[in-house]
Protein 1
Amino acid sequence: MSAPVQAKFPMTAGFNFAIEANSDGARAGVLTTPRGVIQTPAFMPVGTQGTVKGLTPDQIKTTGTQIVLSNTYHLAVRPGVDTVRTLGGLHKVMGWEGPILTDSGGFQVFSLGHRNKISEHGVEFRNHVDGSPLLLTPESVLDIQARLGSTIAMILDECPAGGVSRDEVAKAVVRTHRWALRAHEHRSRLDLFEPMAVFGIMQGGVHEDLRKESAQQLLEIPFDAYAVGGVSVGEGRDALLSTIGLSAPLLPFDRPRYLMGVGGLEEFMIAVDQGIDMFDCVIPTRNARNASLFLGDGSSLNMKNARHKQDPNPVEEDCDCLACTRYSRGTLHHLYQRKEILAYTLGSIHNLSVFHRFLRKARTAVLDGVWEDFRDGFLSRLSLRSG
Amino acid sequence: MSAPVQAKFPMTAGFNFAIEANSDGARAGVLTTPRGVIQTPAFMPVGTQGTVKGLTPDQIKTTGTQIVLSNTYHLAVRPGVDTVRTLGGLHKVMGWEGPILTDSGGFQVFSLGHRNKISEHGVEFRNHVDGSPLLLTPESVLDIQARLGSTIAMILDECPAGGVSRDEVAKAVVRTHRWALRAHEHRSRLDLFEPMAVFGIMQGGVHEDLRKESAQQLLEIPFDAYAVGGVSVGEGRDALLSTIGLSAPLLPFDRPRYLMGVGGLEEFMIAVDQGIDMFDCVIPTRNARNASLFLGDGSSLNMKNARHKQDPNPVEEDCDCLACTRYSRGTLHHLYQRKEILAYTLGSIHNLSVFHRFLRKARTAVLDGVWEDFRDGFLSRLSLRSG
């Protein structure tokens, strides 16, 4: 095992990352931002349109959330960046005082936009709502995120679709690198409304050599931290897990490593074991709206199933969330059947609580020096169940 | 002015009503129940299907809610009374520890049911969901409410549609009286899961003599308190307000008077002035879901209106609700435009807060001996605005 990579540049003033303990690859860290402290590993709920769907800021916090993610693309389309600024910035709009990480918008452009024109300059496209043109460049996405008032901004990367040729992935690595250089150059020209860190994004698909190339190039640019991109684009589960393993250790040991767009207890376990510190995913809130509630062992319940109708027990006995402490499976079944808003709220609170609790337990295991037992116990129960 | 009517019978053990102050007809009262104390005048939000739509119990409480109303008919259809009982009763299902008043289900039968057969025995009908038969009798509606675990149950009354002949209304008064006698008779046979008060309901439409007849008959039956029924069935606004005036003083001074199905600041003002103490209405939550938010002067805002898009001000400057303290009109406009669940939650919190705050102010005005100023000031501002 080679010596861990160290970051070559300091973090932006007001930001800091400290590792309190580590075991194998797994780490218990503390990411400090001007908007608050994040104990890692940490999951970031997704607030697509200026709200984590169905939840008030207090409810978001109660689930254990320390930082939320918001989508630059959706906000740029509606209500628009100028409107967000006029209303006092994204924190004010969301009613959320804590840290906010915003994505660059690039991922949505590749997946939602149509008539995209990708060039060296950037991505020109028509938005998915009214077809209005929007130009995302390495510079403009940082301008937008600065105007939103993001705490952590992501650079524009080129994220090739799953299944494309090695050649395409290699080209995306090169372009992502050139865009990363431009993003860094542009930082000195940003009109900031509050301190903002910028994270670089590594690409390279499932190819070890391309991941290495991407990391080596990226680490020469003074970003605050680095993310693993391009892992949730449909290469399949095995590819996802192996890509995490070959990507995470390439990023600086002394900086938070963010695995973009991934969430799930098994994924958390494997990624944390490889040294990942931050996650985001729409699954806990989206699944909650579809009546799928997580259990702490990695399984889930379909609350619309008639077997829950008269069940007076909570979704999960040892869960301290509002849904489990105040409601029975029977009530949740009823609320989901009746499409009551409260079902979506309670389900989202529960699913986020399960995610956050799992990562807190992982953190504690690292701090207590029992990470390997924790990991192996969970994974063996998981394989017993699925086997 | 004749001497105030007094109740002839004591209240059920565990229940009490005390009047702390009164001025003209208006009173500041305290209704004590085994589930908690209600300072009157009080508004009851409606939890149709086991939830006040979009709100958690804590949010309901934060708006100033002291007691909620739940609909027997809807619960009897889905999830069913047996299911509610199996799940631990209505308080457990709703996650609400405070007092719950349930209606008899009669009103929904008259308005939602089809193929109703009204006879002396009761109302036989097919429910609006799957056409299953359900029989509501003066006895069965109390059995159902007892099984739900209601704190305050309402008797079955015959509520004639608006616009029917005086003769029809007179017949409904007579039948309502016979049903009230049977309801009272049945109380000794109820299988109670917790202490339950029972309120009688006066009918008589817009006719002063029929209201008097109904009240005189009703007051001979030992109910815990008495409600004014049949005022929200489409006789028009003037009829509504005048019926309140001729009905409320007929009911015992020393018991809470409940005006069924009415809500709105002007209605509150006129009804409280006539001695009404309790209200319920779906308007604050329903309107909130339709982007109509109340202001304290009795007017309202359509939050979907484009003029709010970039407005950084709160809905109401001096409102201490979550929507007003944490969000701007611009954000609420955005959330309503995007049909975000959070809009419905915040809007409901605001509208309920406006209702409750208004009644708290009315109560304080009575306690402080400035009721007439409070009333006249509000009504003159209202007529200035609408004039």
Protein 2
Amino acid sequence: MLSSYRYSRLVQFADTDLAGVVHFTWIAKYMEEAEHALWRAAGLTIAPADSPLRYPRVSITIDFKAPLYFEETVEDHVTVTAMSRRAIRYAHTLTRGDTIIATGTMTAVCVKQDVSGMQATDLPDDVRAKLAVMPS
Amino acid sequence: MLSSYRYSRLVQFADTDLAGVVHFTWIAKYMEEAEHALWRAAGLTIAPADSPLRYPRVSITIDFKAPLYFEETVEDHVTVTAMSRRAIRYAHTLTRGDTIIATGTMTAVCVKQDVSGMQATDLPDDVRAKLAVMPS
Amino acid sequence: MLSSYRYSRLVQFADTDLAGVVHFTWIAKYMEEAEHALWRAAGLTIAPADSPLRYPRVSITIDFKAPLYFEETVEDHVTVTAMSRRAIRYAHTLTRGDTIIATGTMTAVCVKQDVSGMQATDLPDDVRAKLAVMPS
Amino acid sequence: MLSSYRYSRLVQFADTDLAGVVHFTWIAKYMEEAEHALWRAAGLTIAPADSPLRYPRVSITIDFKAPLYFEETVEDHVTVTAMSRRAIRYAHTLTRGDTIIATGTMTAVCVKQDVSGMQATDLPDDVRAKLAVMPS
């Protein structure tokens, strides 16, 4: 069972904006990429091709601490901090070397998707078997 | 029947990159937005909710003529230049006032999408009834 | 002086993801677009070409309430909820008709940008003259 | 001197659209990422922090051959096919295993950027010393 993952990512040109730094929505994308990398490391995928289950975000918070620049390497340490019957909460810390770039939280919920839309549903057994809350 | 459309768009902050100008992939997105606006103006949608038909691009060409900046208004004049049984070809001219920002072409093909993937198929009757090639 | 703005936006194809809904980072982009539209309505720009001042985000929170789909129109009601010497806090409510899509907050800080990076600095007089906190 | 590079990239969730495949503008972004990776492999950067030189695209062509899906690995083989005094032309072939996903060309031009805009200028010596046209 996995509770955390360290995801490393090179900043690409298209991630930047006219202020010369990474646009804030890319910090959020790096966090999502880290979450999905944690799932892969646990032997899971967030979007199984043969399943109606999806894991949309229901809340995010991000505090931006320092600017991040083109071709820098950022590391996101993502940790599972809570799991309920239907939701998983993650904490994120993004760093460039010893500098904290951003911290954040994201809560994703399990939904069943069909033509009528999305309905919250219980996390499947394989997710419960492979992801665990980090002991505090 | 419609053969062309003039789509107007304000440049947003997130469309820019560290060079201070609109990133080239956003020029391509403006062209796709204009194509979809042409379809709406013709009473169509590129992604009907109750249909397996989709219209992915099979080729694009873009020539970039002048930089485009934050909060400028760009207009894309999109024209249907060819229709075959399964494909539609568009020409695009993006301008800011009298300045040409970019010109391009895009060819989209009609596909039927199911679990096995995408298969090219004939354009449906309502598309043929509402879009027409611009007389030259 | 302006304290709020209602920004309307059509969901574009590229805003969606494989779950068939608007990707969560686009909700954040819509909020930024609304903020900049508020500034324009107040006679301001967030990125004056002849100034070293920029307004990066230092924190965001978003709660996602309902999925948003291609070609729907979303409205973001953005309100200035606090101003300090160097920072502005906004509240956002995104709706599609009577349905709340998301709520959120964003805090932006005024920085002076030069080759050495970004340094927090006081909000300029024209911003103080044209934006005001919404009376509660 | 380097003439080509093989860039490998995992497809991220945010790269996909409601058709369930990678959005075409992301194919263009992968090509730009590969170009920049070629520059890094040659000991160069496309955006030196202490230089007014930038390398915007002046033309692109892309043919899309097969859909690409979430969590697949795509490889872009980028090759320098021509260099003039001010411009570099690249050819790109994107593959997933033995399947060709897309082929394309991109031409970038060297510009000097200042407050008055962008002016085309000669490629600097270090770029000429480290990148070379692939012998045919």
Protein 3
Amino acid sequence: MQLVFSAADVAAIVQPLFSKGATLETIRDIASLGAAKTGDLSFLGNPKYKTEVASTAASVVLLPPDYAGEPAPGQQFLFVEKPSVALARVCARIEQLLWPKPVAGVHPTAVVASSARVASNATIGPFCVIEEGVVVGERTHVQAQVFIGRNATIGADCWLMPGVVVTSECVLRDRVRLHAGVVVGADGFGYEFVAGRHEKVPQVGNVVIENDVEIGANSTLDRARFSQTVVGEGTKIDNLVQIAHNVRIGRHCLICSQVGISGSTTVEDYVVLGGQAGLAGHITVGKGSKIDGQSGINSDLPPGSFMKGSTALPYNLEQRINVLRKRIPDLFKRVDALESGLADLKKPSAPSQS
Amino acid sequence: MQLVFSAADVAAIVQPLFSKGATLETIRDIASLGAAKTGDLSFLGNPKYKTEVASTAASVVLLPPDYAGEPAPGQQFLFVEKPSVALARVCARIEQLLWPKPVAGVHPTAVVASSARVASNATIGPFCVIEEGVVVGERTHVQAQVFIGRNATIGADCWLMPGVVVTSECVLRDRVRLHAGVVVGADGFGYEFVAGRHEKVPQVGNVVIENDVEIGANSTLDRARFSQTVVGEGTKIDNLVQIAHNVRIGRHCLICSQVGISGSTTVEDYVVLGGQAGLAGHITVGKGSKIDGQSGINSDLPPGSFMKGSTALPYNLEQRINVLRKRIPDLFKRVDALESGLADLKKPSAPSQS
Amino acid sequence: MQLVFSAADVAAIVQPLFSKGATLETIRDIASLGAAKTGDLSFLGNPKYKTEVASTAASVVLLPPDYAGEPAPGQQFLFVEKPSVALARVCARIEQLLWPKPVAGVHPTAVVASSARVASNATIGPFCVIEEGVVVGERTHVQAQVFIGRNATIGADCWLMPGVVVTSECVLRDRVRLHAGVVVGADGFGYEFVAGRHEKVPQVGNVVIENDVEIGANSTLDRARFSQTVVGEGTKIDNLVQIAHNVRIGRHCLICSQVGISGSTTVEDYVVLGGQAGLAGHITVGKGSKIDGQSGINSDLPPGSFMKGSTALPYNLEQRINVLRKRIPDLFKRVDALESGLADLKKPSAPSQS
């Protein structure tokens, strides 16, 4: 990304309470205080970096109103209520430049079935396949090389990035973002073992993704055996995550990269799952629980649980055990010594040496 | 999915031994006994849910012949030998509606090399690329946006879903199903460290996938350094699984999501690998072994092994250790106390208090 | 792969110091000494397999000059300085047959924006989308169904395989190989929790991939929140790996399959990360460190660290603990016995039995 903002452009976006100093530099990038160079915008987002402001080379710095220092020559300080929020506003402006609003309409190369209903202000990009009975909502952007299967429904203001696959009968509500390579509605992993072979159990349910869900690149969500696999409103899912059939995920969860959730498990609202955590099937993780990275959960958890380890224990207990683990080799030696010591005491007293 | 079956349609599919009651409801969905509503089909698949039959709102219920209760008004019971098998038959019928038989032929947008041989009753969907020398067998469905590289061979009755990539020289036998985003035949991860750099070792083998294999979305299978990476007949692989170069997987294995199998490892017939398990390279996992989720296997396992943990131990031992782990902090205190106690005893006897 | 080399063709590639015996067989495959059949090429890459040379059925065998045995009738020995290097040369030749040099030019089905600059000797394959402002360097091969977003820059001699997605503003230097399904530049996983909802933090940085990097199938690399996510020169990344936003990976690292690296973490040069290892965010793994498979790293590591376990400990300590873990159930029993024994000793002496 190459920005070409003037300091005045930045000020127009962040609307500072007041400012100090001035710069004629074109702002071309954003950087942390320590890494910033001339022409960069930086910010004091965390008070612990306060001492770095005085030495930063950034041309424009976003600061809280109580910051007392003075800018260097050719440097401008913009004082705002919350520097991190102000920075987010600058980033949102940049994002519009990176991802300009697509032109509405169906690209001439796209293959759209005659019975599909695509909103007139939606965008269907090159090499997309939209099958029979599909609905694509208002202002939705189906970017490129996307596949949407028979009778799937995509809501308004969604964004399906290149290579996304949404299979037959699946439903996306509004403002859903699927990053490149996401697969919604692959078959659940269900077989019956009959006469020495795994016979397929047909997977005839679907996947429903509620409003404001975002799903990271190459994640996979399986359709239900029957009824629905559900991702609740506002939940955010990172890259390479696996959601099995009939899983029900609540609202406003955060599911980090490479998590795996096995079939028919329920994750209640506001749960946070750390990277590479694994959940067994047919369990419930209670509301607001936090699961540390790489943890393995094999049984129901009450609301507000905080777990770590594989198999997981309560976080504080697991951390204590982790500290003690290092001393296990020593513990074995201590028990050896205790056994020797006790044996010595038990021996019939040897004749006195003296 | 919206079904529109009458109760008579369901009966025609499951062919009940006998029935009780009657309903005029249109059957529109399938649900568990507890979740079912009017218009749903439900079933008693597991005796432990027997008590839920009396209160289910399902309009049609599949039951074993020895179930003694009576249907509610407007509810129909269909008695069948095995309700779960009967349900699977209904699901299979629904599946045909979800995934109707594709029309044979090559979509006008597909790019098919002149030397490729595509069976006349096969289907090649939009935006597929079929390179020189490829063979596509009878009734195989290459769905959309699929890539099949030079000289690859795809058998009969296969189904390659959107975005699948099968690279040059790879072989799929018959009735192989590859879900969206599967990559068959990426290069194995092989380098020689020469003069401070990793020099690529060319990967010139291929991948062979035997009959009746199914592979889940976004899984990856690497081509062999030389000779073959093999997946045996009837083996089922879930989503986001990694199969490295020169791995040999036997017949009728189940490999759950996010498993990783390192290079040159052999997995014998009927092995089950739980989700997120990892297998080191150059080892053999014996026939019929079961590996629990998140386990790590670093050495050969004899047939019938049942392992858990990272690094894995026999399942029962690992479970016992998991129970004892919680008491490790206490164990350290007990050893502290023992040391004090023993030291007290060893002390030269203090003058008697009495 | 079906080779059709004569023994003379092989000799022309490996240029032997001298040879013994002769064969008229056509060389059709490569196999290990034990697995080789008539018509195969084999090699003695590791002295421990020396005894297998006498009984191998391979028609041509690559051997070190000091190997003393004689070929069987119809078998040819080719003596070379380093058999594994000689074999790699044969494989490199085979690789050229598998992956013939693509014809330069833009496939008529590709959608290339008018402002994109594609080198005249580059290849853009079918169904690729090249957006505005993209640069594609000399001899680069954009194979099929690839998406390259606005203003992305791809260097010379790169190879982007089917289904690859490189999003807006990302940069690949020269000789970068991306296997099928790789996603470069998905959004980082960043949200601010505001009023009970996760509000998106725009991700406006990019990804920069330096010279000679290779990335395996379906791996994902997220764009930076701001500034850059970087993969250093010569680093090799396996399949299904997750690289989060603002990660900085050094030069000549090896990152095995299914590794996950969390946001803002730095991996210095020559680090090796075993399969399924996970790195927490905002940490630094020092130069030349080795992390065993499935390990979890939560804090900074000095250069040259060798770690194992989750949470990881120094490799040798973790291995010792792994050995002792099996004896933990016994340890609890020993401590029980010690407590009983000590209690007995502390008891006021019972009246003598004798």
